[in-house]
């Protein structure tokens, strides 16, 4: 069940902020209201605490509203914690007993907004000049003003085709300074709930990063609202939204939150800013650069590095030919990887890419700040946009995505293999051992033999759990994770021929055993 840390602002705000994991699925540093907020408020605002608590409760309940089924006497029901409530008494009882912490957070947010509104109104009385558009937008407490009119659509129209065949998933980001990310967060929550979208939206003072799924009508309306919003209309265009087949089913819920970074690199945006990135190359320009890179005769003297700045489990099932794919588990390890292997980039031209382009924005800025590269380029729109234009280009294999689809397929190439038998295989599953969240590649034949864990350690834990179901206190302990260096060190010869040190599990009479295997990803033969 998600936890709520809403920062609602204003009398009519009908939204709350959901806490969620980031695109690396591990981040938990959500910006929360100050625990000492009440002590910091003036006396007049403290007196409004009962009102703020009632309002917080009402707003929380309001966000759970869903249309009632046709022919029902009531116009609305409520859905919360995967339960459907048909009357106010039951939803009120549920919220009061199950979401007390969220209501306390939201009450603090309402009090905070009352204090801000009071200070703002005082300052406005002494000003003669009109407030800039952005401040007008962000200080307007009524998010409904910035929601689309869906009265011309029936509920069925809005949710029809939400399945993987008829729905759609949007992937986008926008770097631009936001003065009030909490307001944007509340607006995004209300917008997505109105359109029955699920997914993840991450907001910070440096911008917004989202991936949402729903019906094609809902995603179309979402894009239209984003492009007409005063905060983003001058910074985004329709081409900035990457689309793929999917829908609301690709995400278990809607998660929206305010963080320090819209993609977690682990370095404050004040130190490494998105405003100083590498040179953006269109998919066509990037394709030509990769073609030139692969055609170079003497790879040892190449002045170019094709750098994949994604995580190892992403590049494992799909990558550009001849790339350097760091064996890192999180993007927050990327800066340390650059620092540890800085000599590799000395005097080099770097061609950098990631899934949708967002990691390259600050990743390229970090590499540029080191001052060792000849030049740093990045693929605009990421692999997603490249594959739309060059499905049979230099990118081979699948494109990993951070939702329940795990991967998108644009070509028939399989570049990875089953961890147990080595057969070509590229469809991820979660490790079958409880409490382990590692992804595993295991082919159908090995799955039928019961090999469904990520490593020998987890496979053994799974067997013990099957024999003694009461032993449920196992900690996450993965042999495959412990073996991998947190920050790998590359050798100069690996720049063009990266090596995967991922162990393969060989199946013997006594079960699986670890067999160290080095798999090379050579350049294609020249025709």
From TrEMBL:
Highest taxon above the source species: Eukaryota
CDD domains according to UniProt: RHOD_YceA
Gene3D superfamilies: 3.30.70.100, Rhodanese-like domain (3.40.250.10)
Transmembrane segments: none
Pfam name, any one: Rhodanese
Domain Rhodanese: start-end pairs: 300-395
Positions of the UniProt region annotated as Disordered: 502-527
Biased composition (Basic and acidic residues): 503-519
Protein name: Thiosulfate sulfurtransferase/rhodanese-like domain-containing protein 2
Native organism: Gulo gulo (Wolverine)
